[in-house]
Design brief:
CATH superfamily of the largest domain: Winged helix-like DNA-binding domain superfamily/Winged helix DNA-binding domain
CATH class of the largest domain: Mainly Alpha
CATH architecture of the largest domain: Orthogonal Bundle
Number of helices: 10
Radius of gyration: 21 Å
CATH topology of the largest domain: Arc Repressor Mutant, subunit A
Number of domains: 3
Largest sheet: 4 strands, antiparallel
Order of helices and strands: HEHHEEHEHEEHEHHHHE
Number of strands: 8
Strand order of the largest sheet: 2-3-1-8
Helix content: 40-55%
Structural class: alpha+beta
Shape: globular
């Protein structure tokens, strides 16, 4: 079990997303709740917390129940596959450093009345999640061309929102936009915290085994890259800590995978399912 010094700040649901992404996504299986509880016990997560997390994810349309005899198995829904695929792309394909930026920015401007205050809050939260920063009142920007249709469609804001792509022209410089809209020091601090935790000869010595370390590592990293707006490398310091952090993640993920996979195959009870249930 993890000691207090190694305790993760991640919620059980964040750990569950990592577990599902590594051991369920793309396998056409559902997993027995009891075996999930056994895995999460290695992370210091209680049976009650695991069952509560599974139930909440069913209610949110992320997991589907499959009964076999007296056992209950949990498999992915179509919605969960979309969420987990997005996480997989961010971890393995997008990368932590944006070296391919073409100079374009996506701009989202809005003026939403107080009668839609909660919707305005939801929009802001979604924009931050998608890597946007607040440039000035009512105007958010993100590097590159972003498809924000998926964010806007369920909010039904219509003419309250304007979306466009643009490039900076003098006297405006892209470096100024980065400085005004994003806290690069806050982003860097998160990567330094990751390095403090993982860039050591023996990370998390109190963890139960490599399966626990693997899931903790993936959870830490996914939370990092999902909070990173993926700013252009040319406007970041040469010693940007995301460069080293990404190297550490890939090295440890590769090192943990073989033994973690053996442990998971021993612990997990899986049921073949035909397809996700939407």
């Amino acid at each position: 079990m993890l000691g207090d010094a190694d305790a993760l700040t991640a919620r059980p649901q964040s750990l569950m997303f990592s577990f599902l992404g590594v051991y369920v996504l793309g396998r056409g299986t559902a997993v027995y709740s009891g075996s999930v509880i056994d895995v999460f016990a290695r992370l210091g997560v209680t049976e009650e917390a695991v069952r509560s997390t599974l139930t909440r994810m069913v209610k949110r349309g992320l997991l589907a129940r499959h009964r076999q005899g007296r056992r209950m198995y949990f498999g992915l829904t179509e919605h969960a596959v979309e969420v987990l695929d997005d996480g997989r792309r961010r971890v393995w394909e997008t990368g932590a450093v944006n070296r391919d930026w073409d100079g374009a920015w996506t701009l989202v401007g809005f003026s939403i009345p107080d009668s839609l205050r909660s919707t305005r809050h939801d929009l802001r939260s979604q924009l931050i999640w998608a890597g946007f920063g607040l440039l000035q009142s009512g105007l958010w920007i993100a590097p590159g061309v972003k498809d924000v249709g998926g964010i806007l469609a369920p909010l039904e804001l219509g003419d309250h929102v304007t979306v466009m792509t643009a490039r900076a022209f003098k006297p405006t410089e892209s470096a100024d936009l980065v400085r005004k809209a994003f806290s690069t020091e806050r982003i860097a601090a998160r990567y330094r915290a990751f390095l403090d935790r993982w860039d050591t000869p023996n990370p998390l010595p109190s963890a139960a085994d490599d399966l626990a370390r693997q899931l903790l590592l993936h959870t830490d990293w996914l939370q990092l890259v999902r909070q990173d707006p993926h700013l252009p490398a040319e406007h970041l310091p040469a010693d940007w800590p995301a460069i080293r952090a990404e190297q550490v993640f890939h090295t440890l993920a590769r090192d943990y995978e073989p033994s973690a996979r053996v442990l998971a195959d021993t612990v997990l009870d899986e049921l073949a399912v035909t397809s996700p249930v939407s």
